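quick one, two chains, predict together pls
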Amino acid sequence: MNKITQQTNAESVFRRAARIRGIQTGLSHIVLMALSIVFLIPFMWMVVISFTKGEMVQAKDRPLYPAVWVTAKVGEQELPVATVSGKDGTKRVAIVEEKPTGARLQELSAMGAAIGAPFVVDPKRFGATGDLKLARATRFHFEVKNYLEFYQRLPFWAFLGNTLKITGLCIIGQLLSASMVAFGFARLRFPGKNALFVMVLATMMLPGQVTMIPSFILFAKLRWIDTLRPLIVPSFFGGGAFFIFLLRQFFLSIPGELEDAARIDGCSTFGIYRNVILPLSKPALATVAVFSFMAHWNDFMGPLIYTQSMENKTLALGLYSFKTLYGTEYHLMMAASLIVLLPVLAVFFSAQKYFVQGIIMSGIKG
Amino acid sequence: MAKSRAARREALEGFLFISPWMFGFLFFAAGPVIASLVLSFYKWNIISPPQFVAFKNYIKLAQDPMIAISLKRTLYYAMLSIPLGMIGSLTVAILLNQKLRAMRFYRTAFYVPSVTSGVATLLLWSWLFHPNLGAINKFLYALRIPFTSTHLVPNPPLWFGDPVWAMPALIIMGLWGVGGGMIIYLAGLQGIPEQLYEAALLDGASNWQKFRHVTLPMLSPTIFFNLIMSIIGSFQVFNAAFIMTGGGPANSTMFYALYLFNNAFVNFRMGYASAMAWVLFLIILLITLVQFKVAPRWVHYEGGR
């Protein structure tokens, strides 16, 4: 093979490889796009149903977008509007009467005015075997009222207040206590440190059920049941093994020289914690705050066990009560759910990188 | 060995800093675990004083048909959702691991569902799975063989109204959350050095072989950790069962955690529920130990054998 053929062969191999890669990328895009749409469809449904008028939710042949039936005023009556389509085209009609023996329809003009006299159509002509199709007309309608109505059914403001209180205090508690404990494990030496840290990790694998009942009894003896205290106080005592682990990993990565420099300047240990480590750990602390928010905003089992009266419930529990009491009113349920979801989405979108970072730090045993 | 004053001081400070955790560990972890064990030897319904019954609770547990049912249902869920979930997240992570322009959009699309999990999304899914009004059945019913009017699925399943389909519905719902695992695997994939793939390519490896001999071994620590946490998690499934099915039609979704909860907070059989909790604890411990024993056979850590 002479040099020119060799060159062209190499080129064509590269070009073929590039084309295959291009096809692969194209295919990946298609698959990913299809999957993403499937994954996001539930949310779209949530939005659609939350804006749909109550009686439309149960209606047959309802369109995919929020809509209401169209009606027209014919003479003195408000009649439902439909379209009748057949071989001769499509006519807009108002349904004057619908009986098993016949449907009396009134043809309408585009403006809604009656044309001619009402006529009767044999019901057998409709349906799967007939030559005519009758479809009730709908138009776009966003029932914003759903959003104004759902919170009147249950004390949602109380739920919101409780959830904010619990979430806010728990975030503070976990930030403070997890960072302190992590600092101790990362930067200080004391006997039994490694054994104790193994115990911290072990608690991550402890199933909640084992501690659930005695904790309930403890809080019952303290008379803290039906208050928010059992949901807040534990966060101040350790903050959870996961956050301790996360922060410890992060603290370990801060160079020791900074600490030495601070000590030379006469800084106390607590001063180092406060003035050196904490300011440098803002990303990790942000991650802890974000995860803590998510966990406490969505917490269901905790409030379920420790609260009883309606005013002490949280949003999560409130939604469940809504389902028990008004479970068939899906439009209100979806509106309520969307509202409860909104802060979570807001936090997620504004702090996305802290999320990803946090998951990575936990999943990759690094 | 004489400790210098400074070392002793540091030790004291160390204990001071971890004292919140030690307190919490005592009162909310170790304490309850032991208390739970002690409680399991008693019969107590909160109102009357506790009665010591020694091992009777455990004997009752062994004879309780509901225990076997709930364990079976929990296992059924675990055996389907864990592999499907892991394969799902891994697949999506691999698909996403290419330098595509819209990667951030896709990543968000897949991840948002797992972020939003909570009561709100459970209510959403109970709507989606509604036998008559829900989007899923409406979609299934609308599928027709092309150019005919024959329905592909003339009788879509009743989902939560059907003992056979309730658990599959929960599993399908669980798959919506693959985004969580996907993020972890994606990060793991991005940590695999390119040279390994290049070396495999030089040795003439196909895509599948590259996956089997480079990707999987390098990801095995992540997979291992994920597997353990998934198993522990599947034994604690509670919210979905409690909110959506309450144990399901004919106990088909009576998860172990739900049965435990019912015993403790609905029937107030604290001793029996504590026994159930300890059995759960031992089961998880056993599974975890087995996992750790089997691990060296398939988990590769980078720093040598």
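Strands of chain B lie at 42-43, 51-52.
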